[in-house]
Amino acid sequence: MRIWISSKEKACLDLTQEEKPAPDRQALEVMGLAVEEIALVKLLYGRPTPAGVADSVRYAVCALRYLPKTSSGAMTPKDYYAAVWPYRINNIAHWFHAAQRAQEQEGGDEPMLFGVLRRIVAWCEEYEAEHPFNEEYLAKPTVKRRGTRKHPSPPVEPVAVEVDTSPASEAVEVRVANEQLTLL
Asked: What is the pLDDT of residues 106-145, one digit of tens each?
């Protein structure tokens, strides 16, 4: 098997040499991608995009972050919408269109990943037509609490401050809850 990539994608690979997660192969097969296209997605999936990577590739790689995962070998609407629509828009299409606009400005070779993303976006449109969006597909937002839980404090009693204005007195007395404190 031979995979072709553009010079822009090669720069992305050269600048990122760390381990990366693997995409859900079953989801890619459900989308109808060829073996070479799956290999290309696997090659670029999860890559960070440091400075020096063309914006068109940066945005295309970012689109791969939203690929859906399958549960038990089948693509369910909940799996699809939880991955692709976490912010109530199709994020794959959003980032792919951003990559296309960046490519128009950059010129040069079009990244090979664009062909794969076109197929994925077309499949997403078909899937969304068959399975319309429903709010129940998205996970309910959870409220994250950080730190310690605040316990109710006892009721605060008023503080009475008595100041002796005579020249012989140097101390100020503060009474809190029937206790006396002396301040210097």
From this structure: 988 899 999 999 999 999 999 999 999 887 777 665 666 6
SS3 of 79-140? HHHHHHCCCCCCHHHHHHHHHHHHHHHHCCCCCCHHHHHHHHHHHHHHHHHHCCCCHHHCCC
Q: Give Cα 11 to chain centroid, integer Å.
A: 24
Enter the tokens of residue 40. 């290309």
CB neighbourhood size of 153 (10 A):
6
Supply 54's token pair.
């063309």
Domain residue spans in the chain?
A: 7-137
Whether pTM exceeds 0.90: no
* Nearest residue to 2 via CA among 52, 47, 60, 43: 43
Query: 179, 176, 184: which is closest to 160 by C-alpha?
Result: 176
Let me know if 140 is exposed, middle or buried by CB neighbors in 10 A (0-12, 13-18, 19+).
Answer: exposed
